[in-house]
Automatic annotation (TrEMBL):
<dbReference type="InterPro" id="IPR036986">
    <property type="entry name" value="S4_RNA-bd_sf"/>
</dbReference>
<keyword id="KW-0699">rRNA-binding</keyword>
<dbReference type="InterPro" id="IPR018079">
    <property type="entry name" value="Ribosomal_uS4_CS"/>
</dbReference>
<keyword id="KW-0687">Ribonucleoprotein</keyword>
<keyword id="KW-0694">RNA-binding</keyword>
<dbReference type="InterPro" id="IPR002942">
    <property type="entry name" value="S4_RNA-bd"/>
</dbReference>
<feature type="domain" description="Small ribosomal subunit protein uS4 N-terminal">
    <location>
        <begin position="3"/>
        <end position="92"/>
    </location>
</feature>
<dbReference type="GO" id="GO:0042274">
    <property type="term" value="P:ribosomal small subunit biogenesis"/>
</dbReference>
<dbReference type="InterPro" id="IPR022801">
    <property type="entry name" value="Ribosomal_uS4"/>
</dbReference>
<protein>
    <recommendedName>
        <fullName>Small ribosomal subunit protein uS4c</fullName>
    </recommendedName>
</protein>
<dbReference type="GO" id="GO:0009507">
    <property type="term" value="C:chloroplast"/>
</dbReference>
<dbReference type="Pfam" id="PF00163">
    <property type="entry name" value="Ribosomal_S4"/>
</dbReference>
<dbReference type="GO" id="GO:0019843">
    <property type="term" value="F:rRNA binding"/>
</dbReference>
<keyword id="KW-0689">Ribosomal protein</keyword>
<keyword id="KW-0150">Chloroplast</keyword>
<comment type="similarity">
    <text>Belongs to the universal ribosomal protein uS4 family.</text>
</comment>
<comment type="subunit">
    <text>Part of the 30S ribosomal subunit. Contacts protein S5. The interaction surface between S4 and S5 is involved in control of translational fidelity.</text>
</comment>
Length: 214
């Protein structure tokens, strides 16, 4: 399956809040808040539908194809520890997601574009692979070019305004990351903890969804 390019608000109505998908905070119209509807639907639906919804939430938030998500599931399944927790750590330590969590892009899709256009350096090397897996100790900087620096500053200013309106959980910089005062240099301090993950999800249901397929 290819990466989703359709209407994003439709997915938010169906799955709930997806911070990495929308540029602005999405407010439901009166009478259309899906929380109660989603709960009623889950009570009536089969277990498969519930697991599918959680898997889709993970996929659309991080902007992955089905094939990519299956590959991450296989890696997590072979690793030590809880498969669901390892899966979330693998996704959170992607370079595009780390740029999003640092506030250098409005969405994960926007962060992916910054990486593809070669604006970002990791440990002094240009990295143009959004799925690059960052490790503790990695230094993330902006390319030493005025156009790249101006672009990142612009995005940081927009992200700062956006995050004032969202929940405290997303407003704070996660503990596994740190950023300089000029916001041109950041560092990965450690592997992310489960509590710091920027998406509300039941990862155990995602593991159950794939358990019969992998």
């Amino acid at each position: 399956m290819s990466r989703y390019r359709g209407p994003r608000i439709k997915k938010v109505y169906r799955l709930g809040a997806l911070p990495g998908l929308l540029q602005k905070e999405f407010k439901y119209r009166k009478g259309r808040d899906p929380k109660k509807k989603r709960l009623r639907y889950r009570k009536r639906s089969k277990e498969y539908s519930i697991r599918l919804a959680e898997k889709q939430k993970l996929r659309f938030h991080y902007g992955l194809t089905e094939r990519q998500l299956v590959r991450y599931m296989r890696i997590a399944g072979k690793s030590k520890g809880s498969t669901g927790q390892v899966l979330l750590q693998l996704l959170e330590m992607r370079l595009d997601n780390i740029l999003f969590r640092l506030g250098m892009a409005l969405t994960i899709r926007g962060a992916r574009q910054l990486v593809n256009h070669r604006h970002i350096l990791v440990n002094g090397r240009i990295i143009d692979i959004p799925s690059y897996r960052c490790k503790p100790g990695d230094i993330i900087t902006t390319k030493n070019k005025q156009s790249s620096k101006d672009l990142i500053r612009k995005y940081i200013a927009l992200c700062t305004r956006k995050r004032k309106k969202v929940s405290k959980h997303l407003r704070k910089l996660p503990k596994h990351l740190s950023i300089g005062s000029k916001k041109e240099k950041a560092q990965v301090n450690k592997i992310i903890d489960r509590k710091e993950v920027g998406l509300r999800i039941k990862e155990s249901l995602v593991v159950e969804y794939y358990s019969r397929q992998i």
